């Protein structure tokens, strides 16, 4: 994790890379030839300034230009899910993605008629700017998914084309009192990004409450369950509620589709300081918009805006 602004200049990198070399240079000149001391101080200041400048975290995303990023690591989660880690230009580089926004991935792919076509899809990284040097994407490969199948075929060293940021959601601490979230499948990625940001911000005064309903077909489909359970155990302000279409025996979570009763039981009631976030397959989003309106939430718009009470990614 990156150091906070208050203590970053006291990290080992600054001590070993700036303070000690500068001190040795100045002390050496003081011992050997005092006449050189002003030049040594000036040189130490220049080198130290360059070191500080070159170590700053640099955003790399460009909203209108696709850039190449190299696949550094691929972690298989299941037969059709993997986490892909891509390198940024420098160890101190950051993607520059506001919490709640996403990126576009482009690839020119062969079509059934023998032609080629540029395909663009949006994804939300599961990493953040507090982790410089790389970004992670959690992607499920679908039989009919152009980009997801392309991603599954990548090997370490190959590149993808990315631009961004994009999206209407930008999370800021305490923007609401309580988030209710409903996610289906890989729709968990923008939710996880926000959940982690909320919990990271506790020390700085973020008091946002979060309740998440996470919907999947089978138990093995629940992505990042250990991470979610760990966050819930770590933070009393975050709670996760699982719903399965095909639950195992002795399952104590929800079963089937998300119902108005589940929303009433697990998520916050409609209020001006409450926001409902939705992400998942289009049929689920459509059903949840209708259900939320029936429960007293403001009617969801076809295209969500940041100020909307019900926001669909």
UniProtKB/TrEMBL annotation:
Q: What class of enzyme is it?
A: oxidoreductase
Q: Which residues are recorded as binding FAD? A: 121, 123, 138, 140, 147-148, 189
Q: Which is an annotated GO molecular function term of this record?
A: cytochrome-b5 reductase activity, acting on NADH
Xref: SUPFAM superfamilies:
Ferredoxin reductase-like, C-terminal NADP-linked domain, Riboflavin synthase domain-like
What Gene3D superfamilies does the record tag this protein with?
Nucleotide-binding domain of ferredoxin-NADP reductase (FNR) module, Translation factors
Q: How does it assemble?
A: Monomer. Component of the 2-(3-amino-3-carboxypropyl)histidine synthase complex composed of DPH1, DPH2, DPH3 and a NADH-dependent reductase, predominantly CBR1.
Q: What does this protein do?
A: NADH-dependent reductase for DPH3 and cytochrome b5. Required for the first step of diphthamide biosynthesis, a post-translational modification of histidine which occurs in elongation factor 2. DPH1 and DPH2 transfer a 3-amino-3-carboxypropyl (ACP) group from S-adenosyl-L-methionine (SAM) to a histidine residue, the reaction is assisted by a reduction system comprising DPH3 and a NADH-dependent reductase, predominantly CBR1. By reducing DPH3, also involved in the formation of the tRNA wobble base modification mcm5s 2U (5-methoxycarbonylmethyl-2-thiouridine), mediated by the elongator complex.
Report the protein name in the record.
NADH-cytochrome b5 reductase
Which organism encodes this protein? Botrytis porri
Source lineage: Eukaryota, Fungi, Dikarya, Ascomycota, Pezizomycotina
